[in-house]
Each structure stands twice: as C-alpha cells, then as structure tokens.
Amino acid sequence: MTSTDLNKTIVETAYSRWAPIYDAVCGPVMLQGRRAAAAAARAVGGKILEVGVGTGLSFDDYDARTEITGIDLCEPMLAKARAKMASGRYPHVKAVHLMDAHQMAFADETFDCVVAQFVITLVANPEQVLSECRRVVKPGGRIILVNHLYSERGVAAAVERWAAEKTRGLGLRPEFPFARLQAWANANNEAILVERRKVALGIYTLVCFERTMAQQVAA
C-alpha cells in the first residue's frame, strides 16, 4: 500500500497538544519498546543522540556509561524534558535542543549511537531523517529504531489502513511498512541491517542499522 507522509506542521501541532499529558498517556503504552531500544543503545554506550526525545521519558533508561543528547521539534515537549534535567536526577543527559531531524546541526560522525523511538513513522521524510542519522553516527555505530510497523497482511493490516486517515490529525501513522526502512538501507552504501525483532509481545519492532564504510558493504 502507499504510505502518505505526515505534514511537519500537523506533527508539531499534535504533539504540542499532547505535551501536558504525554507522560501519563504514552509512558505506560510505550514502556517495553522504549526500554528495548535503550538497552540496545546502552550495549553500544558512549555518546548517544535521542531523536524525538520529547518529554525525556527515556532519561531513566540510561546510566552513567552513556552521554545523552536529545533533539525534538516540539518546544512544549522539550520544556518537560528540561524540567526533568533541572531536577539533577539525570547527569548523563548533557543537552536537549530544538532541532529538525531532517537537517541536524551536528558535525559528521559525532555520536556512537542514534536512537529514534516512535519517531521514524511520524517525520515528513523518513528517508532524509535516516540519512541524517547515518551522517552523524560514527562508522561502526548503530542507528536504533523502535516503532509499531504496518502488519502488511491480515485483519491487523485492514484495521491499520482504516485507522490511517482517521489518526493523521493526532500525529500518528499506523500504516508505515518495514519495507520502506529496508529500501533505504539497500539504497545506501554505508548502512546495513543488523537486527530486526519484535518486542512488547509483538506490538513493536526493534530495528538496528550499523554504519559501515562503503568498501565494507561492497565487500
């Protein structure tokens, strides 16, 4: 099926409205997927970029072995994250920035790992965001995604197709397929799929890409 990308303004507006209740509503629902992504990132360690850091729900999932930088497009969500940082409970979180993931301000090869939790299906141009993630991660580093991905067949797929247009104004896109992520990797010389597995009783999919040098992929 064709997956229509979300408009940036729709996402910003929707998540500004979500900000006051986001932790209470989405925190429990996304807990297992969030923890799986953070565990994979902790295994890499070092400097970690959280794309779509939101209210900082994931801060508890990291520790002193990591140095977290977060970016988000929604200022009301970031205000919640900054309040968490101000509590002093998260010294491993170094900074959060208002920034568009389609065009990051970071230098090439800055991070050991880039994590995008429940984000890649929501951005206006997923392939561009993935390419930016690849640019800012070091060779040998990981790009870790966790999301609900389109079921592609059966009753679940039919429900997701029906829900797609009805939930777009909420900043959601339930019909996003894994094939689109794989196609991006296949089109790039410096990204290979290293892991794909179901988490949270199969509700979410954890996807990991590794940045490699072009000659390694060719070999």
Give the topology, please.
Blueprint (H helix, E strand, L loop, with lengths): L7 H11 L3 H23 L1 E6 L14 E7 L2 H12 L6 E6 L12 E7 L8 H11 E11 L6 H14 L10 H9 L5 E8 L4 E7 L3 H5 L1
Parallel strand pairs: 1-2, 1-4, 2-3, 4-5
Antiparallel strand pairs: 5-7, 6-7
Could you provide a short overview of the structure?
The chain is an alpha/beta fold.
What are the defining features of this structure?
single chain, 219 residues, alpha/beta, seven-stranded mixed beta sheet, 39% helix, globular
Determine Rg (CA atoms, Å).
Answer: 16 Å
Biggest beta sheet summary = 7 strands, mixed
Strand order of the largest sheet: 3-2-1-4-5-7-6
Share of β-strand residues = 15-25%
Which ranges are low-confidence, i.e. pLDDT below 50, for 5 or more consecutive residues?
A: 154-172
Question: Count the helices. How many?
Answer: 7
Order of H and E elements: HHEEHEEHEHHEEH
Helix content: 25-40%
The helix/strand class is alpha/beta
Shape: globular
Based on DSSP secondary structure assignment, what is the total number of beta strands? 7
Cα distance, first to last residue?
Answer: 34 Å
Q: Give the overall pLDDT as a whole number.
A: 84
Descriptive overview:
39% of the residues lie in helices and 24% in strands. It has 219 residues and is α/β, with parallel strands linked by helices. A seven-stranded mixed sheet has the order 3-2-1-4-5-7-6, sandwiched between helices. A hairpin with a 4-residue loop joins strand 6 (192-199) and strand 7 (204-210). It is globular, with a radius of gyration of 16 Å. Mean pLDDT is 84; it is low at 154-172.
